[in-house]
Amino acid sequence: MACSYCYIPKRAAKMTLETAEEVVDFIFRHANKNETHQIGFFGGEPLLEFDFMKKIVELVEQHASFNEFQIEFSVTTNGTVFTDDIAEFLIKHNILFCVSCDGNAPTQNVSRRFKNGTSTAGIVEATLQQALLKMPVLVNAVYSPETLLQLPDTIRHFMSFGLRQIYITEDSSAQWRDEDVERLEAALGEVADIYMEAYRKKQPVFINVIDEKIATILRGGFFPLEKCHMGKRKFAFSPEGNIFRCDRLVYDGNPDSPHCMGNVKTGIDPSKMSCKINETDTINSECLTCSIEKYCMHWCGCTNFQSTGYYNRAGAFLCAKERTAIKIALHVLKTLEADVPTTFVHHQTGLLPVNAWSWRESISKS
Hints:
By secondary structure, the chain is of the alpha/beta class.
């Protein structure tokens, strides 16, 4: 594929089994036994290397320290590669399956086409429908200024064939304008209406921009461990074994990049431990005194860098998006608490509602 907003350059590099072993050793050396750890396969398209991915899962599960840790696997795919064998392996090893898809065919094809310019929508929708018959499926839609107003249709489209775990994420590298903020509030307001109607019909849907904000509001803000800890509790690895602060900052895997912290063969360079691009890199002063600071994701280092060039300087659109999301979440919370008093009990316990009901039941009702 040739997604217009992709930040990973196409190149021929391929990880060796030796490097994979060193990556796995690095993970266990730096893991805290008191926490759950996510190991994600990301690309490019990771399922093009499905056989190698199986070997890495085997390396993890056969590691001497494996049983001492709680490990969760995930794979993020563009949906163009999928077979029954892949599904069986993912189910057997409890690997969370997330498909990147921006919506219906016209919306998907704005940014996510094959390299020859042809549509990817048909094959990706076929993958979603095939996978849903076998296991839970997450879907992540990236929206841009060109597709912002299609967000409600995107949610309806996903729900129409059984998807109930939906993430929508802004293209943080896009050129957002002041008028996009007003358009965002209108689009998210309509998404909220769809969300509330699903709850009233007792067919709840998880939408990250609503559910995660409601959970944060009910808990009184983000917990410290929920915030960005890139380069400390979060790492990404290039095919060469270079260590980066975040998967969204690997780019071409260049070890001379300011985001690179070292290599699994040589370890982390102590001089690169600081999450600063330079000594003048300071957080937005207005964030420190903002009334919604504790509910806001102004701390997301990769999003900040892609929009401002600094890890801890939030961009104008992120600020506006977070304010809008909090406003919408509060509206949903107040409205549904009056209609369905027990709706948000799972948010308060840290278990979002999508974990509390059967995915098979959701398929049967679709």
